[in-house]
Amino acid sequence: MKISVGHLYPKQLNLYGDLGNIITLKKRCEWRDIEFDYCEINLGEDIPESDLYFIGGGQDKEQIDVSKAMYLQKDFLLSQRDKGAVFLGICGGYQLFGHYYQPFEGEKLLGVSLLDAYTVAGKKRFIGNVTAKSDFLTPDTIVGFENHSGLTYLQNETKPLAFVTVGNGNNGKDKTEGARYKNVFGTYLHGSLLPKNPLLADYLITLALEKKYQDKIVLKKLNDEIEYSAHNSVVGKAY
Ligand code: GLN
User: Fold this and answer.
1) Residues with CB under 6 A from ligand 1
2) Closest CA to 142 of 201, 56, 216, 73
3) pTM value?
4) Measured in angstroms, how far is the CA atom of residue 59 from the centroid of ligand 1?
5) Do residues 159 and 124 make contact, with C-beta atoms less than 8 angstroms apart?
6) Element (H, E) at 145
7) Which atom of ligand 1 is nearest to 56's Cα?
8) Treating both helix axes as pointing N-terminal to C-terminal, what angle do 74-82 and 60-71 enclose, rounded to 10 degrees?
9) What pLDDT digit, counting tens, does each position of 168-227 carry?
10) Please, which residues bridge with residue 143 across strands?
11) pLDDT digits (tens, 9 = 90+) for 74-83
């Protein structure tokens, strides 16, 4: 088997080891003899058809160019979403998966509306480890590290990825963390996210393969002892 992975704007958006998410996806595919066909998409380039897209986080000023470039390909991305492609957006990238991000100063940055969500800058910066619980994973705990001032609000069919037990998540008020609509996932969790959450990594790989092969996929089990010691070391810790 094989999956194609498009990494959106890695030069602009790559914070707190976001690239670790790509390495995790790649290794977990290779360990199972699944071919990993990876490409980077840079500013001004056409986005190719992929089974899974990834975008990392970054600062407001880096989001400006990405917002402009990605907005031009909004219709293509929406059609990919509706065909079942998997998307994972972290923090600044997640914000641009919604309708817009309004920074504290300056113009609204338009997003591609893969998620029915919007983000406005708040006065406070949320920094620290996060523990959250998701209803589609067993065990259900997701861990990561957040650093953002944007406050994200979800609407209609876009549901939370998880609910925070430690940390702030989307907006520090409603306990929600991240978002999901169809196979589009967004989260504030850097850290990196997937190395510490192997179950979530496998969930995304499975969805991408199921989209591609239009069949039920059951992945071979791996030995995740090291991954779980990293995961467990931050469960319940705020900083
Ligand atoms: N501009 C965003 C914020 O501070 C994104 C930060 C990030 O990606 N870590 O809200």
Assistant:
1) 15, 57-60, 63, 91-92, 147-150
2) 201
3) 0.97
4) 5
5) no
6) strand 141-154
7) 8
8) 80
9) 999 999 999 999 999 999 999 998 999 999 999 999 999 999 999 999 999 999 999 999
10) 131
11) 999 999 999 9
